[in-house]
Amino acid sequence: MSASEFRLFLDGAMLLCALMTIVNSLRFKSRGPSAFLLSAAFLVSGIEIYFYRDEYPQNALIAGGVLIFLLLAADIVVRSRDAEAKRRGHK
């Protein structure tokens, strides 16, 4: 894979992240706060790809990776909290 093909691949990945950010934001009504957490994770992922493509310092990439991890962990907490509330509500 040439450098220009790799950049094109990264551009496509950023576009996909942007699309998923929009899709998850539109699903707020059905998914609640989890939708915004996933939107933010996709947004940061797209920014990470941009940083990687433009050779930003490794510290920026690490910070973005940590932020993605925290957003996904928060999503897991919110989903399990909502599932527990749903179970208690149905009993």
Shape: elongated
User: Which spans of ≥5 residues are poorly predicted at pLDDT below 50?
Assistant: none
Which structural class should the secondary elements be placed in?
mainly alpha
Q: What's the overall average pLDDT, rounded?
A: 92
Fraction of residues in H or I helices: over 70%
Helical run tally:
4
Beta-strand proportion? under 5%
Order of helices and strands: HHHH
Task: Give the tally of β-strands.
Answer: 0
Structure write-up:
With 91 residues, the protein is an all-alpha fold. The chain has helices spanning 3-26, 28-31, 33-53, 58-90. The chain contains 4 helices and no strands. Helix 1 packs antiparallel against helix 3 and helix 3 runs antiparallel to helix 4. The radius of gyration is 16 Å and the shape is elongated. The mean pLDDT is 92.
Q: What descriptors fit this protein?
A:
91 residues
In short:
With 91 residues, this protein is mainly alpha-helical.
Topology:
Elements: H1 3-26, H2 28-31, H3 33-53, H4 58-90
Helix pairs in contact: 1-3, 3-4
